Amino acid sequence: MTKFWEHYPEINSELEDIKKIIKDNTKEKVINEPLSPVVESGGKMLRPAFLLMAGKFGEYKADRLKNLGAIMEMLHTATLIHDDIIDDSHLRRGQISIQSKYGKDFAVYMGDYLFCKCFMMLSKDFNMEDMSRISKVISKICLGEMRQHYARRSTKVSLKEYLKIISGKTAALFSLSFYIGARESNCDERLCKLLGKIGYDIGMAFQIIDDILDYSGSAETVGKDTRNDLKQGYYTLPLIYEFKNNNKLLKLLKNKELEDKDIDRIYEEVRSSEGIEKSRKLAKRYTNRAFDRIDKLPENNNKVVLKEILDKLLNREY
C-alpha cells in the first residue's frame, strides 16, 4: 500500500482486508503469481476506498462493503490489464506490466478471468440490480476505450469527444463506487445520486490531471510510460487544446509513425503552449464542483475525511 492512507489507519486497515479478499479469490498459482505484484505494488485503491466512505453515510455493513470493494478493485485491475495490452505499456504502477512480462495472450486471459470472478462474487451475495449496474459500467468503459481507439491519430478530435472518452474510461467507475457504496448502506436515493455525482466529478478531474502529468511528469514519478499515449496515437487534452492554433504541431502529427525526435518536439511544443494551463483550469472546474457537492452531504467526520483526501488527491502539483 502507498503512504496515501497513512494518516487514516481505519481506511488503511479496511483496504488491507480488501486486498486479502482479492488474494483469497485468486489463489491459484497461475493467477496469484502474476497478479500479486499488481495488487501489492502501491496502487491507492481509490475506488474501494470511496465505496467504503460512501457507505459510512448510511448503515455501514463492513463485511458486505469490503466484498463489494474487492469486486470494484478487481474490476479496475482487469481494465488496467487490458489497457496495457492495447497500449503496449511496459510499466504499470512502477512494475513491469503483465502483458510485458507474460505476453499479451496471457494478459487477455487474466483480464477476462478477473471480469468473470467479479460476477461470480456478485452472484453469491448481491442482487441482480447490482450486477446490472456493474455490467452497464463495464459497457461504458469498453465504449470509452472504443471511442478513444476510433479517434486514434485524429487531429480533429474535439474537447466534447475527449470528455466522452474519459467519462467512460475513468469517471463511470468512480461514480459507481460512490453510488453503490451508499446504495448498499440504505442511503436514500437523493443521497446515493449526490455521491454518484461527486464520484463522477472526481473521476473527470483525476483523469485530466493524469493526462497533464503525461506531459509534466516522468515515468518514475507517474509509475507508467508517460509517452505511451502519444506513441500509440491517443491524443489527450493538453495536446487537443493545441490542434486549432499550432500548425507546427499538426505537421508533426501527420507522421503515422512518430520517431523519438518527433515526440520530443511535440512535448516541447505542448509544454511551451497554453494547452497544459487550459487543462489545469478544466481539472479545477471539476474539482471545485466535487467540493461544492461534498458541502451538501450530511455533517459527520466521514465528510471531513473525504474533503481532506480529495484535497490531497486533486489539489496537488500538476
CATH topology of the largest domain: Farnesyl Diphosphate Synthase
The assigned structural class equals: mainly alpha
Largest sheet: 2 strands, antiparallel
| Percent helix range | over 70%
The first-to-last residue Cα distance is: 22 Å
Beta-strand percent range = under 5%
Report the strand count. 2
CATH class of the largest domain: Mainly Alpha
> Taking Cα atoms only, what radius of gyration do you get, to the nearest Å?
19 Å
How many distinct helices?
Answer: 16
Low-confidence stretches: none
**SSE string, helix = H, strand = E?**
HHHHEEHHHHHHHHHHHH
State the domain count: 2
Give the arrangement of secondary structure elements.
Elements: H1 9-24, H2 29-40, H3 46-55, H4 62-87, E1 91-92, E2 95-96, H5 98-102, H6 104-125, H7 128-150, H8 159-183, H9 189-216, H10 219-222, H11 228-231, H12 237-240, H13 247-253, H14 260-271, H15 275-294, H16 301-314
Helix pairs in contact: 1-3, 1-4, 3-4, 3-8, 4-6, 7-8, 8-9, 9-15, 13-14, 15-16
Fold and architecture overview:
With 318 residues, the chain is mainly α. The chain has two domains: 8-141 and 172-187, Farnesyl Diphosphate Synthase (Orthogonal Bundle), CATH 1.10.600.10; 192-297, no CATH class. It contains 16 helices and two strands. Strands 1-2 form a two-stranded antiparallel sheet. Strand 1 (91-92) and strand 2 (95-96) form a beta hairpin. The mean pLDDT is 90.
Overview features:
318 residues, mainly alpha, Farnesyl Diphosphate Synthase, 2 domains, 73% helix
Outline:
With 318 residues, this protein is mainly alpha-helical.
